[in-house]
Amino acid sequence: MRINQFLVGLVLGVVILHGCSVKKFIPEDESLFTGSDLEIESEGDIQDKKEIQRELEGLFRPEPNSKFLGMYFGLWAHYKGSKEKPGFINRFLKKRFGEEPVYFSRVNPQTTEELMLNRLENNGFFFAETSSEVNRNGKFTSVSYQATVTEPYVLRALKIDRDSLEVDREIIELMEESELQPGTRFNLSKLNDERERLDEALKNRGYYNFNPNYLIFEADTNVTDKREFDLFLRFRKSAPQHGIIPYKVQKIKVFPNYSVTEDEDKLDTVVVDGKEFIQGNLVFKPNLLEQYILLEKEDRYSPLRSRLTSNRLSSIGTYRFVNLRYEEVEDSVEFGNLEANIYLSPLTKRSLRAELQGVSKSNNFAGPALNLVYRNRNLFKGGETLSLTGKFGFETQLAGGDLSGLNSIELGLKADLVYPRVIFFVPIKEKFSYSVPKTKMSLGTEYQSRGGLYRLNTFSANYGYFWNANRFVFHEINPISLNVVNLTRTSPEFEEILDSNPFLRRSFEQQFIAGINYTFNFDKLSGRFRTHGIFVGTTLDFAGNALGLANSLAGWEEGRFLGLNYAQYSRGDVDLRYYYRMNEEHTIATRLFGGVGLPYGNSESLPFVKQFFAGGPNSVRAFRIRSLGPGTYRPENTGIGAFFDQAGDIRFEGNIEYRFPIVSVLKGALFMDAGNVWLMNENEALPGGKFTSDWWSELAVGAGFGMRIDIEFFVIRFDLATPLRVPYLPENERWGNTFDIGSGDWRRENLIFNFAIGYPF
Fold first, then answer.
1. For residue 716, how many other CB atoms are within 10 A of its CB?
2. Any idea where the Bacterial surface antigen (D15) domain is (predicted)?
């Protein structure tokens, strides 16, 4: 039955594709252009031959119509939708997929030959020849191009005639690092790149008015009988004097509360380290603001330091606009002089904002949340930001099944105070060039009621630092991280769950978590035109070590601090992501994740909030939330008790996803996920959960299709997946799926629907 259905589908597909033939639509006096090819002939090997071929092929115009599975689907959609009465479907196909026909009458092979010849000469092939041949096949025409090249001209020597001015000596020094070395093939684009390199380097050495057009390369090919040339680097005669002298910064003026209506002469001026801070009422303390400015008097002009100074001032978080302008003042014979003016326009000092959010957490709870945020910027006139956040949230398990009744109500209050500098017990004046390390102090409390099972009160305090080392690298370290968890009002049902799993009970009883954590992110994923995107993230979390040492030295009660049990563990994870963008809209996204937690000392398991889990919309999507593992463990029932049992100390996971557009903001995805969690120690209540050397044979695998509403700043995601490999089945039965889509029982068990906000990775 299924074989017959497959054959019928195959025949139907062939008929549909055959129906996409466009030959009958091509006008009598036209021929469809099907593309061009190129053959390069040479006397010997050509350096960078593939690159040159790509460059020449890039000159082919116009581009032929695209093909899909060997058929001109876009062109067919255009023809069908252009009929006198096309109908709704054909109009839609034309609008969404249609392509205007590209006829051979638009192709000019002679012009393309001339462009190819010019491009070959720009690459040093001065005696090349090009030709073309038109290939006609009924209603279809293509063009074959040929390029015949001989030995190219290569550089014999590079000469700089002048050395009387300082700028000449600077150029001579910079040319020592040039790629234009003897033996280099003549390449016009490399000469232009070299001028741009010299321009950037000279500007960073103080040449404020320098321009790459002041430089000219001249090639002499009559130096030897061989195909060699000498290259001369000269200044144009029209280069002005002010363009070839270095500039120094003679004055630095900062306006911490700039307004176009203010009169500078009526404002107070404070001088700190040679910089003038001009403001009326005190808005920002000059001695603190000075630390963000990398410019110094008598230093040469540097666009790099100027840009970094603007970045640092913007990163404070107090200013809406940062504008650094230079003005030329009196020049000397050897140096020009500049005045640097830094105009800073503050943000509104106080704000109150209400945020209605759709929350999708890493623990796969989702639901609405209301945040009220009060923010006071520049609290102590040093760029400090105080944020007070009150939160109400309701979350539930949207995956359905036996866990659909599990929900959570959260109430929280948190205060964050961020200093845009390092606050330490000894003064530290940092000069991080890219951005400013910030100090963050946090206090918070949260009340959580989960499904009538228990109530949890959490108190937290953190002290740490975070900063961007550059555009891609982020660091955060919290040397003080305290959490006090008070489990209250457990229901008889939850007590029964805890009684059946002593490890779980201990993970909730460890009520005091004191430690240090560190986060590192290298993020190079963003960018529509970045072909290869990479993300590397890691988190290290250590708890209880200092308390354990204090216990042993002071002789306190073992495993307790201030009357509370405290947790001892080390935990770390690594998140690796790679995106391959085939074009602006089609992406293959991959992820590998590994995490390990090691309980020790007075802890036999990780605290529940620190454990790993698998399954759900941000994990292996073919399995319901927290329904995987640990290992091959399968609970007797899949109710709420299993939600707490199916977590572990170790997690491995891999994902691959092909993302493509459907229409407008609606995107699609095909994906496959694999992963599981395991326990570090044996737990009799969870047989098969311990990590072993056969862990790879216990991986769950699933695949599916997703749809996403992507409005740039907001993504709503729907994923439908089915299991391909089930780790808790007998070893020889884990692979496979009957795919009995017509059975209601099969669909209930094997089609897993996931809803989430944001992409999974």
1. 16
2. 397-731
Q: Tokens for 514?
A: 């004191």
DSSP label of 623: S
More confident position, 225 or 395 = 225
Reported residue count of the chain is: 761
pLDDT tens digits along 279-319: 988 999 999 999 899 999 999 999 999 999 999 999 898 99
What three-state secondary structure class fits 723? strand
Q: What phi-psi label fits residue 492: left (phi over 0), alpha (psi between -120 and 50 degrees) or beta?
A: alpha
Distances (CA, A) of 307 to 79, 291, 397, 742: 53, 15, 48, 63
**Using CA of residue 387, residue 393, residue 399, residue 405, what is the dihedral sign?**
positive
Give, for 120, the enclosing helix (H) or strand (E): helix 109-122
* pLDDT cut 90: percent of the chain above it: 50
What pLDDT is recorded for position 357? 67
Q: What pLDDT band is residue 621 in, cutting at 50, 70 and 90?
A: very high
Does residue 159 surpass a pLDDT of 60? yes
pLDDT digits (tens, 9 = 90+) for 4-45: 444 334 433 443 444 457 888 999 889 999 999 999 998 777
- Lowest mean pLDDT across 179-183, 227-231, 293-297, 483-487: 483-487
Q: Is the full-model pTM beyond 0.85?
A: no
SS3 446: strand
CA dist 303 and 102 (Å) reads 48
Residue 249 near residue 338 (C-beta atoms within 8 A): yes
The alpha carbon dihedral of 626, 630, 634, 635 has a sign of negative
Question: 232 near 159, Cβ under 8 Å?
Answer: yes
Q: Is 88 left (phi over 0), alpha (psi -120 to 50) or beta?
A: alpha
Q: Which distant-in-sequence residues (6+ apart) come within 8 Å of 219 by Cβ?
A: 186, 229, 230, 231, 232
As a whole number of angstroms, the distance between CA 460 and CA 295 comes to 41
pLDDT of residue 494: 83
Tell me the pLDDT band of 389, cut-offs 50, 70 and 90.
very high
Q: Does 639 have pLDDT greater than 90?
A: no
Q: Identify the residue whose tokens are 């090349």.
A: 128
Show Cβ contacts of residue 125 under 8 Å, excluding neighbours closer than 6 positions.
149, 150, 152
SS3 473: strand
**Could you give the CA distance from residue 493 to residue 497 in angstroms, rounded to a whole number?**
7
- Helix, strand, or coil here: 185? strand
Residue 652 in contact with residue 629, Cβ under 8 Å?
A: no
Q: At what angle do helices 188-203 and 166-174 cross, to 10 degrees?
A: 120
**pLDDT for res 16:** 46
What would the two tokens of residue 65 be? Answer: 């119509």
Identity of residue 646: Q
3-state secondary structure of 115: helix
Q: Which helix (H) or strand (E) holds 608?
A: none
Question: Of the given ranges (269-273, 599-603, 664-668), which has the lowest mean pLDDT?
Answer: 599-603
Residue 408 to residues 355, 455, 753: CA-CA distances in angstroms?
A: 19, 10, 21
d(CA 350, CA 646): 45
Which of these, 727, 602, 720, lies nearest to 677 by C-alpha position?
727
Mapped onto helix, strand or coil, the DSSP state of residue 11 is helix
Position 652 confidence tier, pLDDT thresholds 50, 70, 90? very high
Q: Residue 80 and residue 21: Cα distance in Å, rounded?
A: 11
Residue the block writes with tokens 């044979």: 697
DSSP letters along 187-202, please? -HHHHHHHHHHHHHHH
Pairing of strands 275-279, 215-220: unpaired
Q: Quick check: 477 and 518 in contact, CB under 8 A?
A: yes
Q: Which amino acid is it at 627? A: S
Question: CA-based Rg of the chain, rounded to a whole angstrom?
Answer: 34
Beta strands in 679-714 (DSSP E): 700-710
